[in-house]
Amino acid sequence: MNMLQTRLVQFATEVFQSSVPLMTNKFLEPAVKKLVIASSHVGASNTEIVNDEPDDFFYINLQSVIIDLQETQYWMQTILNVQPDSELAELEKETKELLRITNAMRCEAIAV
């Protein structure tokens, strides 16, 4: 597993761990569930980003990771609008950093 893969899996794990205490808030529960799903997709989608020589399959999987990171970021921001003192604030910064890294690996840039 390369460094990016390790970082993405660790990120997904940290999001899950930070989300558990938020599940007690019935108002936030649907958004927290969506966040956990999106972040777990980040951890799962990255498993195919292994090649040293990028090919079409690499870029398809990279695009999938970027989309999952964007969705994760959306749900984090939604939760942080309601509960700004959440542990997710630091992870939201990590999401932006991971988006910058994965975006830089693409041929064309997308908004972060």
Whole-number mean pLDDT: 85
Tally of helical runs: 4
Structural class: mainly alpha
Instruction: Write the H/E string, N to C.
Output: HHHH
Helix content: 55-70%
The proportion of residues in beta strands is under 5%
Regions with pLDDT < 50 over 5+ consecutive residues? none
The N- and C-terminal alpha carbons lie at a distance of 26 Å
Molecular shape: elongated
- Secondary structure tally: strands: 0
Largest pleated sheet: none
- Kindly report the oligomeric state of this protein: single chain
Rg, alpha carbons: 14 Å
How would the blueprint of this fold be written?
Elements lengths: L2 H17 L9 H17 L10 H27 L5 H17 L8
Helix pairs in contact: 1-2, 1-4, 2-3, 3-4
Please provide a written account of the structure:
α1 packs antiparallel against α4 (88-104), α2 runs antiparallel to α3 (56-82) and α3 packs antiparallel against α4 (88-104). The protein has helices spanning 3-19, 29-45, 56-82, 88-104. The two termini are 26 Å apart. The protein is elongated and about 45 Å long. The chain has four helices and no strands. Helices cover 70% and strands 0% of the residues. The model has no long low-confidence stretch (mean pLDDT 85). The longest helix has 27 residues, at 56-82. By secondary structure, the chain is mainly alpha-helical.
